[in-house]
């Protein structure tokens, strides 16, 4: 993954593209990753008014899909102001006023970021884990933050293409237990076969 400074540049480009042609840009892990998350929530009969946090929302497309599926209590955070600007534009275009968007650093979340029943991560933990500056410490901070924003018994859905199931179980062993592994296709972007996507559902103890 590129360093944080270049995320901003990438989102600024996508913001410009969206303004020019109305295209929201890249969907991390593609459409099927969003469908997989929404199907699981529906299968679990997660109430539509459950509070959902999208960690590293990027262009906010997952939240739009959740809103279209009937979820009404949605929050997206990203530390890139350009990403939040982009997701605000996408939200306006779709007319989804019930989506809350905030610029937040998940490793140092603000006090009002708490009490969520569902937290979703598509690629943000991956990006944090690859930070050349103290990746191990940042992963620990991530788990601490997750414990502070997610209610006990709350669900955490993570999609990763850097970590295997076993590695993720190890990363989140303190405070979380695995509920299930979601089926994923055996490929990742970049065309490298065998580097499969892992999607897990944890429950906070």
TrEMBL record:
Keywords: Cytoplasm, Methyltransferase, Nucleus, S-adenosyl-L-methionine, Transferase. GO terms for biological process: methylation. GO terms for molecular function: protein-lysine N-methyltransferase activity. It catalyses: L-lysyl-[protein] + 3 S-adenosyl-L-methionine = N(6),N(6),N(6)-trimethyl-L-lysyl-[protein] + 3 S-adenosyl-L-homocysteine + 3 H(+). The keyword Transferase applies. The keyword Cytoplasm applies. Gene3D superfamilies: Vaccinia Virus protein VP39. Pfam families: Methyltransf_31. It comes from the Eukaryota. One of its GO terms (cellular component) is cytoplasm. Residues 51-180 form the Methyltransferase domain. HAMAP family: Methyltr_EFM4. This is EEF1A lysine methyltransferase 2. The gene is Eef1akmt2.
